[in-house]
Design brief:
The protein has 685 residues and is an alpha+beta fold.
């Protein structure tokens, strides 16, 4: 990394220092709203392509690679400061080929160059700013730069490229070698996947919990969605009071804090403080889908009225604010009217103006709005630390404030439809439908699944994203196949629609054919073997803001193995077992970065649990109870004898609906009553 530290920033060069770009800005036809935000920049941005790299080689200039996403606050800041500047554009257009990438549309590129940025600087983030050789090797990386610093950096990189090319080639070669070594995969020989390993992983995660404010680690605090789902499953298996307390504490703190939109529902991406008061205001589909699943599960596990209310509000937020037709868009910006959070914050005076003095003063107390404020300029983010006794007044005041807020400038919306995140939404809507008794959520999930399969499957292969009904060129990655397959399998269990099962099987077969490591059973690549070949083929097993592709495919395979016929069941079951075992070192040593792995392992050590109910699925209290009582990760189907794989040879008993509870391939005797079913599952009725 010596070149990274030896580049010296100098005053910017003359725009004539290098051969000028022959192309104008080419982002106007992009399928990414983020790229389109930059279509009017004077910088001659192009999309990533073989032609762009070839142009850099022809001109013998380095590549300026800028990676971000539409809801990113600091991406907007750098765009306004630098990319809208004619001074910056004159230098970049003369001395670089300028490539702009939406990290949500091309997560493979983002993964490669984020690894490089972290390796060089010790940290990452967006906007990501990388300088590459024409063949794509990075030699200098960073994140956000103020305009003056960016101009100095452009000058220094230009001088280094012109005068010290041998150092650039040497450094970029070393960095590429280090990145390839990092991508070599996990070592073998992990511990067996067992209840003891799950207990260890849960205890390890709890050691880092914030027992005062909820959550894990220090601020900024991100919602630990996958870990919370795993801990709920651990609680259902063990009954651990400590685990349950951690879930209750964190879910309550997030629900009552400013990270949760107290008026419209939905969660912001993270909290900048320790107590969940001040969020970074962007709202992402993936966060809200994952949190909807958690709060629905918490509601089924006795989380009470708060859990059910937040789950319902989050589902409504998805349907109202992120739906575009039948599918779901990606995000809402943090900014509105050029200022972060301006849509959401209030002063006491604004509350009185919207509500009148009496209700305004009452609302200030209920929502913790003070003269000092909790955000900027005496403004406060709404919190709901306790439910007032007058719930009717709260509902009326909240509706009035939401109407007043709708008159403000609203955040921009990234209308891009991402396959993986819609897959997460399908699963969450199905699980919320069970927890809340809302058939409309099943209908919404089904519409989304149908639309995705119609638009994003092109010539039998899945695509990553679309915009306004136009599917993009970016190939789907592992997480797209995995989370959509899981969503389809979850929806199949509620609808018995064999078309959904067939579609999930097709996705899993594609994943096994094109993403599984050919020489290491249980390990996976994030990009397909026939996708564009980058400097390295990304393969990140760690769970982050979303579950990793590998942990997601493990979940899908584990579920599918018990829903398909014997010709596939063995193959899927073996692949799932190999995958969880190959990644068991993460559960042993990095539990907080393996939340979804723990959730999958918890399901695996229970068999996974399967409940097949012989019944009329449209009118069976026993089936409804099975869905409500089943622990997270369980598989539940209902219908007539032989109507599905799990109901083969299983019929009603003496004319009564009958539930067959199985652990792996071992099944209990059928039960016909809800109390008996609850006893078989080891849960209260």
């Amino acid at each position: 990394m010596g070149l990274h530290t030896s580049i010296r920033r100098k005053p910017p060069p003359s725009p004539a220092a290098g051969p000028a770009s022959r192309v104008a800005n080419q982002l106007g036809e992009a399928t990414s709203p983020y790229l389109r935000q930059h279509a009017d920049n004077p910088v001659h941005w192009v999309q990533w392509s073989a032609e762009a790299l070839a142009e850099a080689a022809r001109r013998d200039v380095p590549i300026l690679l800028s990676i971000g996403y539409a809801a990113c606050h600091w991406c907007h800041v750098m765009a306004h400061e630098s990319f809208e500047s004619a001074e910056v554009a004159a230098i970049t257009n003369s001395n670089f080929v300028c490539i702009k990438v939406d990290r949500e549309e091309r997560p493979d590129l983002d993964a490669v160059y984020m690894n490089a940025t972290v390796a060089m600087t010790g940290q990452g983030g967006w906007p990501m700013t990388c300088f590459l050789t024409p063949d794509g090797r990075p030699f200098f990386c960073g994140t956000y730069y103020p305009k003056n610093s960016f101009l100095e950096l452009l000058s220094a990189v230009t001088d280094t490229w012109r005068d010290r090319r041998d150092e650039v080639e040497k450094a970029s070669g070393e960095i590429a070698g280090e990145l390839r070594a990092m991508a070599s995969g996990l070592p073998g020989g992990g511990p067996p996947v067992s209840a003891e390993l799950c207990d260890h992983a849960a205890a390890s995660a709890l050691a880092d919990q914030d027992t005062a404010a909820g959550g894990f680690g220090r601020p900024p605090k991100f919602p630990p969605s996958a870990l919370l789902e795993a801990l709920l499953r651990d609680y259902e298996r063990t009954g651990s009071a400590e685990v349950r307390a951690a879930v209750d504490r964190t879910c309550t703190a997030m629900a009552r804090g400013g990270i949760h939109d107290q008026l419209a529902g939905g969660f912001a991406r993270y909290s900048v403080d320790n107590t969940w008061v001040v969020p970074h205001f962007e709202k992402m589909l993936y966060d809200n889908a994952l949190l909807l699943r958690v709060y629905a599960h918490w509601a089924r596990c006795g989380g009470g009225e708060l859990a059910a209310r937040v789950a319902g509000q989050t589902a409504d937020f998805l349907l109202r604010d992120l739906a575009d037709g039948d599918m779901f868009t990606s995000s809402l910006d943090a900014d509105a009217d050029g200022r972060e959070g301006s849509t959401y914050v209030w002063t006491p005076q604004q509350l009185r103006a919207a509500l009148g003095d009496d209700d305004g003063d009452w609302a200030a107390k209920v929502f913790t709005v003070t003269a000092a404020g909790t955000f900027e300029d005496g403004e406060s983010v709404l919190q709901l630390r306790n439910d007032p006794s007058d719930t009717a007044r709260l509902a009326r005041v909240s509706a009035t404030l939401l109407a007043a807020r709708s008159e403000r400038v609203q955040p921009g919306r990234d209308d891009k439809v991402v396959t993986a995140w819609n897959g997460l939404a399908i699963t969450a809507l199905c699980e919320a439908a069970v927890a809340l008794g809302r058939a409309d959520l099943v209908a919404a999930a089904r519409r989304c699944a149908t639309a995705l399969l119609q638009l994003h499957l092109v010539d039998g292969r899945l695509r990553r994203a679309s915009l306004g009904g136009r599917v993009g060129d970016s190939a789907a990655i592992l997480e797209d196949h995995a989370t959509l397959a899981t969503g389809l399998l979850t929806l199949y269990q509620l609808t018995a629609d064999n078309g959904l099962l067939d579609a999930a099987v097709g996705l899993l077969d594609t994943a096994l054919a094109h993403f599984a490591h050919p020489d290491r059973p249980g390990q996976w690549f994030d990009s397909a073997d026939d996708a564009e070949q980058l400097m390295i083929r990304p393969a990140d097993p760690l769970d982050g803001a979303t579950p990793s592709g590998a942990s997601s495919i493990a979940e899908a395979l584990l579920t599918a193995a018990h829903l398909v016929g014997p010709e596939r069941a063995g193959r899927y079951g073996e692949a799932a077992a190999d995958t969880v075992l190959a990644h068991s070192p993460l559960l042993a040593r990095a539990a907080r970065s393996a939340g979804h792995w723990l959730a999958v392992a918890e399901a695996a050590v229970r068999g996974p649990l399967q409940i097949a109910v012989a019944c009329d699925p449209a009118a069976s209290p026993l089936l409804a109870a099975a869905r409500r009582l089943a622990p997270g990760g369980a598989i539940v189907v209902g219908g007539a004898v032989d109507s599905s794989e799990l109901l083969t040879g299983r019929d009603r008993v003496r004319g009564a609906d009958a539930a067959y509870v199985c652990h792996g391939r071992v099944c209990d005797l059928p039960v016909t009553g809800v109390p008996e079913l609850a006893a078989a599952l080891g849960v209260p009725v």
